[in-house]
């Protein structure tokens, strides 16, 4: 199945989503900050990045690293 990276500071939401996706046979990586997610991202095959609409509505210091990596 797919390799999925979840980036969210809400630990309970991450864990719930992680358990659900693993039950669907996905490989799931979790990060609890943008910086941690960006460190993990090179080790994933990122064909699609979801949640970008929210990222683009946040201050530029969050969206800019995604843009620098060609993800948006």
In short:
This protein is of the alpha+beta class. It is built from four helices and two strands. The chain is flat.
Outline, from the CA principal axes? flat
Query: N-to-C terminal Cα separation, in Å?
Result: 24 Å
- Helical stretch tally: 4
**How many structural domains can be distinguished in the coordinates?**
1
Which percent range fits the helix content? Answer: 40-55%
The topology string of helices and strands comes to: EHEHHH
Q: How many strands, what sense, and barrel or not for the largest sheet?
A: 2 strands, parallel
The amount of beta strand, in percent, is: 5-15%
> Would you report the number of β strands?
2
Over the alpha carbons, how many angstroms does the gyration radius reach? 12 Å
Q: Look at the structure and give the mean pLDDT.
A: 75
Keywords:
4 helices; 72 residues; alpha+beta
Task: Give an overview in words.
This protein is of the alpha+beta class and 72 residues long. It has one domain (3-66). The chain is 47% helix and 14% strand. It has four helices and two strands. It has a two-stranded parallel ribbon. Strand 1, helix 1 and strand 2 (27-31) form a beta-alpha-beta unit. The chain is flat. The model has no long low-confidence stretch (mean pLDDT 75).
What are the SSEs and their pairings?
Blueprint: E1 3-7, H1 11-23, E2 27-31, H2 34-40, H3 52-56, H4 60-68
